[in-house]
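tokens incoming
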């Protein structure tokens, strides 16, 4: 039996072929588009730092009868009957998450990262603002407040302060910025990286915290390539009486895989920790909230109805599978390889003339200042995509091109590491990318001005990049156990 025949005969291959056949019998276009997405992912070098490849087991765990069940509440305390097995699978996911991260409590219902952050924000507000107000007014819950007292409490909710990392320093919209609901909930101020080193300036964080006196101090990032000292941040939070919340959505896999330990592991230091379950953790799309603070538990567990509706029980089942996978010894090897691959990618680009923001990386991602190639981030992103390399444009610190065109691109190694690539492969990826970027030229607008979006790239460069990428992907195939479907 050939390798192709063996792949076609695996249990995973049979499962996915059967699933697509069932879908195609009802809506063939959907089945076709699912196959198209798999073909795309198999033919492109995926360097999106927030994306990964979930295992067949995780993917299959999302498509089952748990999808049909309403289960508001928490295990043993549901608003709907018939939740026996939802309780079991949610409890399993909770226990797996607690063991994986060393947390005393886990809440696995959030549908996404923003939902996890909203649960955390409102848990802190309920604990630090609502609960004292209820005690002061001799009320057991908000329904016992008079209309006048309720209006006073609502005003208090809207008068709270938050600090977080600036967007162009690597922060995230959900950390209190105006376009997001978090910015409409809180009065927010940002702290920045040092303009010279492009690294987190803990003295500035302390200065902003002392001057602004926030209720919540948010740490974590979506585009910061360095490790964060959470012990230092906890000292600052304690000094100003702030609750330290860490959003580890991007680097949760590096925490689970013991790349970040001690002062760089948020769990021993933060009051509350949020995360997505995909990205470097390699699970389904969803969120979690973790804490070691007993005083916060009851408020976190009120995520529904406080913020969430019915939990996605099928996704909680997939989370349990992903957490089990992340508890295996080989996941630690994977997480360390992610970090090593990111370093190799950054070094490979730097030695070929690219400028790496902050001079390197200590996590799963790196930022490239593509003005060193005479391009904007949008031009670089588009040129690379046309060459089979998928990245996203991203602001760099104090970016002169703004958040739409940007001066940088963000690169991450979780996905390519999942399919087996090592540091030598990532150096090859760096060479492919730099050849494309060096050959890409900015075009001009109809008015004769330099364009921030249009570019030219010779077809032979584009095709050579695609050919070299295809060789790498052939050596490191995606889902080889599934084969052609």
């Amino acid at each position: 039996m050939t390798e192709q025949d063996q792949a076609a005969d695996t249990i995973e291959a049979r499962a996915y072929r059967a699933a697509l056949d069932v879908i195609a019998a009802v809506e063939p276009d959907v089945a076709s588009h699912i196959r198209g997405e798999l073909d795309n992912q198999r033919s492109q070098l995926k360097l999106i730092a927030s994306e990964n490849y979930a295992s067949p087991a995780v993917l299959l765990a999302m498509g089952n009868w748990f999808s049909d069940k309403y289960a508001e509440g928490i295990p043993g305390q549901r608003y709907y009957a018939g939740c026996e097995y939802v309780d079991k699978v949610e409890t399993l996911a909770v226990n797996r998450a607690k063991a994986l991260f060393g947390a005393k409590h886990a809440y696995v219902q959030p549908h996404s990262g923003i939902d996890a952050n909203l649960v955390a924000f409102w848990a802190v507000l309920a604990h630090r603002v609502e609960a004292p107000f209820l005690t002061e007014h001799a009320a057991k819950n908000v329904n016992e407040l008079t209309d006048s007292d309720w209006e006073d409490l609502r005003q208090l909710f809207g008068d709270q302060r938050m600090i977080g990392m600036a967007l162009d320093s690597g922060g995230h919209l959900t950390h209190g910025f105006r376009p997001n609901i978090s910015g409409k909930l809180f009065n927010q101020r940002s702290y920045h990286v040092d303009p010279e080193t492009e690294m987190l300036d803990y003295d500035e964080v302390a200065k902003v915290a002392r001057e602004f006196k926030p209720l919540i101090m948010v740490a974590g990032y979506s585009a910061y390539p360095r490790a964060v000292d959470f012990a230092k941040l906890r000292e600052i939070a304690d000094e100003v009486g702030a609750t330290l919340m860490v959003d580890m959505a991007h680097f949760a896999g590096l925490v689970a895989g013991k790349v970040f330990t001690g002062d760089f592991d948020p769990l021993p230091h933060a009051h509350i920790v949020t995360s997505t379950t995909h990205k470097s953790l390699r699970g389904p799309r969803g969120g979690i909230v973790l804490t070691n603070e007993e005083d916060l538990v009851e408020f976190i567990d009120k995520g529904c109805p406080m913020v969430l509706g019915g939990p996605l029980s099928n996704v909680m089942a997939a989370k349990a599978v992903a957490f089990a996978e992340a508890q295996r010894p080989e996941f630690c090897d994977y997480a360390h390889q992610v970090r090593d691959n990111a370093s190799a990618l950054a070094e490979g680009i730097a030695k070929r003339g690219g400028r790496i923001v902050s001079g390197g990386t200590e996590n799963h991602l790196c930022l490239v200042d593509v003005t060193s190639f005479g391009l904007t981030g949008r031009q670089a992103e588009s040129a690379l995509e046309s060459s089979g390399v998928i990245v996203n444009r991203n602001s760099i610190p104090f970016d002169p091109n703004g958040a739409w065109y940007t001066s940088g691109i963000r690169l991450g190694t979780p996905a390519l590491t999942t399919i087996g690539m090592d540091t030598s492969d990532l150096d090859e990826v760096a060479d492919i990318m730099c050849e494309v970027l060096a050959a890409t030229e900015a075009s001009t607008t109809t008015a004769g001005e330099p364009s921030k979006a249009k570019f030219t790239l010779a077809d032979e460069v584009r095709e050579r990049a695609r050919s070299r990428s295809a060789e790498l992907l052939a050596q490191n195939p995606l889902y080889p156990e599934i084969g052609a479907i």
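note: Residues 209 and 240 are 7 Å apart (CA to CA).
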